[in-house]
Amino acid sequence: MNNLLELSDLESYDKATQGKAIMVFSTTWCPDCHFLKTFIDKLVEENRDWTFYYIDRDKMVDLCIDLDIMGIPSFIAYKDGLEVSRFVNKLRKTQSDIQAFIDAIEE
């Protein structure tokens, strides 16, 4: 997840939502989140129209509760401050699953 910018406070999160942003909610202990590390940098490179941000759910619990992010890894996409899509559940996400989520936003 070297190509993701980490957000660690609500002010930074709110500011990041003002562009074309995909928020990646994850943790250090989650096996499916570790699986995500095997391909997320490639997805970031292939989708340069978007800025990808990493949010550690354990460090930003209140935000995750407000956004109803319980399952991880999960994704929320924003354009100009508005949520345009979300991919939130507790299931493992593959590279093709996440790319399909991104492609659907672009349509």
Automatic annotation (TrEMBL):
CDD domains: TRX_family. PROSITE patterns: THIOREDOXIN_2. InterPro entries: Thioredoxin-like_sf, Thioredoxin_domain, Thioredoxin_H-type-like. Residues 1-107 form the Thioredoxin domain. It comes from the Bacteria. PANTHER family: THIOREDOXIN (PTHR10438), THIOREDOXIN-1-RELATED (PTHR10438:SF468). This is Thioredoxin. It comes from Coprobacillus cateniformis.
